[in-house]
Specification:
With 225 residues, the chain is α/β, with parallel strands linked by helices. The chain has helices at residues 52-61, 80-92, 106-114, 132-136, 143-156, 173-185, 204-217; strands spanning 3-4, 6-13, 22-27, 50-51, 68-72, 96-101, 120-124, 159-166, 192-195, 197-198, 201-202, 222-224. It has a single domain, classed as TIM Barrel. 35% of the residues lie in helices and 24% in strands. It has an eight-stranded mixed beta sheet with strand order 2-3-5-6-7-8-9-12. Helix 3 (106-114) runs parallel beside helix 5.
């Protein structure tokens, strides 16, 4: 019986695929170790234990109720073959498919895009280029890979969003202005700044900082709590 690197499931979500009711499947393993990660339990790769049959039965029971199946993590692109299979099964059963990714591998993302296996993607722009390794918690700078992934999505015609989680260490005017410059260079019309949350509670100080930063500088971005 085929087993998958799925570490957890959220059976019902209103926030993981815009304007759609979805279920979210979290893959184990991530290339990053972001200091603010709210899914740290999925960072390590463990022995696969989630049965493919469980997935098939799960989505079969939810036809007509859910609109979409979303794959998150961790980093789903680490397990491209598994991800492709689950996207194919989801689509065959009439669901839209969504992907949350760090954008670390434009090559793997291209495979999904070319095969039209995803309908929507959410991609993280962690920081400006200079601060990318720090924001990702790794030595290698994945800024260029992320930019390539964003360009792939732009050219694909697939709906997507780009978002940046604002945590204490990058909640600084000069750093966030550089992040916004990157959004501008990429022609992303609606930058999204997500407020860092701990145990599900948005950090109030960061929220206040972002609201002040936005109003005092007459900037255009969305604050997501």
């Amino acid at each position: 019986m085929k087993k998958l690197h799925i570490g957890g499931v959220t059976p019902f979500s209103t926030i993981d695929y815009p304007d759609n009711l979805s279920a979210v499947f979290f893959f184990q393993g991530c290339v990053f170790r972001c200091p603010y990660c709210h899914n740290s339990e999925f960072q390590e790769i463990k022995e696969p234990s989630y049965l493919l049959k469980e997935f098939v039965d799960f989505i079969g029971d939810r036809k007509g109720f859910l609109d979409a199946i979303v794959f998150s993590g961790g980093e789903p692109l680490l397990f491209l073959d598994e991800l492709k299979l689950l996207c194919e099964i989801s689509k065959e059963n009439g669901f839209k498919t969504g992907l949350h990714t760090t954008g670390y591998s434009p090559e793997r993302l291209s495979v999904l895009v070319e095969k039209r296996l995803i309908n929507w993607a959410g991609i993280d722009l962690k920081a400006d280029m200079d601060n990318y390794p720090f924001a990702c918690g790794v030595e290698k700078n994945f800024f260029n890979e992320t930019v390539k992934s964003i360009e792939i999505l732009k050219q694909s015609g697939i709906d997507f969003e780009v978002r940046t989680t604002v945590f204490k260490e990058i909640a600084k005017v000069d750093l966030l202005k550089r992040v916004l410059e990157t959004y501008n260079k990429l022609n992303i019309e609606t930058p999204i700044f997500q407020v860092y949350s701990e145990q599900g509670k948005p950090d109030k100080e960061i929220e206040i900082f972002l609201e002040k930063f936005k109003s005092e500088n007459n900037l255009n971005f969305v604050i997501r709590k």
